[in-house]
Amino acid sequence: MTEKSKSQKLIENIFLKKDAKRDWQDNYIWLVEEVGELSRAIRSKDCANIDEEFADVYAWLLSLASTMDINLDEVLLKKYGNGCPKCQKTPCGCNHREEDDEKV
Ligand SMILES: [Zn+2]
Question: How far is the CA of 99 from the centre of ligand 1 (A)?
Fold first, then answer.
């Protein structure tokens, strides 16, 4: 069992009590809103704001995971800990991500 990251523990200490009272859908909407704000910051090349929006997206992702009793590091390492989930190489030697681009 992987210990929760310092970041996930930090966000839990600050927000878990409040965020756990909301439905997961409402927390998810907050996350998506922050992703939208990150997109706008990147498109406007507003460097100071980009840092802040990355922090907000990460904080909401961590909090959403915590309210659903998910250890984000644990699930990330479970899926990616042995390299690319498709070819198992680090760095990836297949066209895993390029295939996704074709769907867009
Ligand atoms: Zn690969």
Answer: 11
pLDDT tens readout for residues 70-81: 999 999 999 999
For residues 87 and 96, give the distance between their C-alpha atoms in angstroms, rounded to a whole number.
8
Distance 83 CA to ligand 1 centre (A): 8
Give distance in angstroms: CA of 84 to centre of ligand 1.
5
- pTM to 2 decimal places: 0.88
Quote the ligand 1 centre to 19 CA distance (angstroms): 36
Instruction: Quote the CA–CA distance of 85 and 77 in Å, as a whole number.
Output: 11
Domains along the chain with CATH numbers: 6-103 (1.10.287.1080)
- 46 pLDDT more than 90: no
